[in-house]
Amino acid sequence: MCRWLRLTSSPTAIEVAVNAPRAPLMPLDDALARLLAHINPLTGTESVATFDADGRVLARDIVSDLQVPAFDNSAMDGYAVRSADVAAPGSVLRVTQRIAAGHTGQALQAGEAARIFTGAPVPPGADAVVMQEEAEVLAAPADGVPQVRLSSAVRAGQWVRRSGEDVTRGTTVLAAGLRLGPAELGLAASLGLSHLPVAPRPRVALFSTGDELVMPGDVPPEALPPGAIYNSNRFFLKALLHRMGCEVSDLGIVPDQRDATVAALKTAADHHDLILTSGGVSVGEEDHVKPAVQALGQLDLWQISMKPGKPLAYGHVRRSTQPGLAHFVGLPGNPVSSYITFLLMVRPLLLQLQGASRLMVPSLQLPAHFDWPKGDKRREFLRVRRNDQGGLDLFPNQSSGVLTSVAWGDGVVDNPAGQTIAHGDVVRFLPFAEWLS
Ligand code: AMP
Ligand code: MG
């Protein structure tokens, strides 16, 4: 028999499914709070090269040991002067020295100017810089010392970058819990830091469940057996995990069998902080994840008031060769459900594991350029795209299996349960770019 076509529904199972009482759906915020209540930050701190710290979470406050800039320096190519010497336009000064970036000058005497370049230290005695566009070099007089005429009056402090105006010694420049990005790495480097203390990377074991799944490359599209589909979740989940700074062990596809699922979980628990699966967490009799996790630990199956998404499994698996537990999250199999649930639930979990202080993404209030006449009884996350008019267009097919909607969209509208939307209504937009950064 083809392994993708299994006729397993027994009348008893159907009866059970129909008669099972429906538990009320759990609000998404409650589910997230419950999930996060289980997540303690990973212990330990790593020191990584500042070059390699992009995307990592800072484990300790960074307090500056120095002023940035460390010395008063010129913001322009021009002339360093004593402002008292240039109270009126047309003042003429003797140019007694030349200071390039990386070099220092001598104390400036009354009536003198120093030729100076951007970033060079302002010499003692000087308190202002005149940009070269406002200076006219005069023919050298008999003593050979060049002179310069300055076309405008000078204000003390002009074009001088003050020591400490960027960072003052002793201040906390980067706070523990901050997720580092390119600007933060540059700032850390400006303080002289070649290494940074960061939280360990979460170690995540990833596997997909489903007998229908085949891997791209294993079977060409024209030879795809009836009932088979390509495994798409594995690809985006792996990429999403990498973006969240995780070390990923890809355990592949686990067949819809309890023994195989138990074996995969056992392997996964030992060296990982989180086991992440997709599929097999609905309440069908082909959904083996729940009993398998329960055999090795504990699991709750939540029905969350969200669309796409709804079923989500959270639990833990005991380690067999080491002390401790691995967290377990079972995402729904439908690709859009899996994707959105990852962003809304797994992303904050991974950030909390790393001790990040900001778990949520900022939203924008934007006008809907579409109608949504029938609000669902679950909170919806509608795939939309920003348009040139400053509004949001809706992807026409909002089904949870249509991955095109996520690739096309650049975010979702977070639409409260039961809410209809009329063209022009201002809605809450969550951009994918924020989630993926
Ligand atoms: P399940 O949650 O296992 O009942 O799966 C729900 C739907 O998602 C089914 O149509 C599956 O074929 C599909 N599905 C499950 N896992 C994947 C996957 N890794 N890639 C693409 N589709 C999947
Ligand atoms: Mg399945």
TrEMBL record:
Q: What is this protein called?
A: Molybdopterin molybdenumtransferase
Question: Which UniProt keywords are given for this protein, alphabetically ordered?
Answer: Magnesium, Metal-binding, Molybdenum, Molybdenum cofactor biosynthesis, Transferase
Its pathway, per UniProt, is: Cofactor biosynthesis; molybdopterin biosynthesis
Pfam families the UniProt entry points to: MoCF_biosynth, MoeA_C, MoeA_N
InterPro entries attached here? MoaB/Mog-like_dom_sf, MoaB/Mog_dom, MoeA-like, MoeA_C_domain_IV, MoeA_C_domain_IV_sf, MoeA_linker/N, MoeA_linker/N_sf
Taxonomically, the superkingdom here is: Bacteria
Q: Tell me the protein family, please.
A: Belongs to the MoeA family.
Query: What GO molecular function annotation could you give as one example from this UniProt entry?
Result: metal ion binding
- Catalytic activity annotated for this protein? adenylyl-molybdopterin + molybdate = Mo-molybdopterin + AMP + H(+)
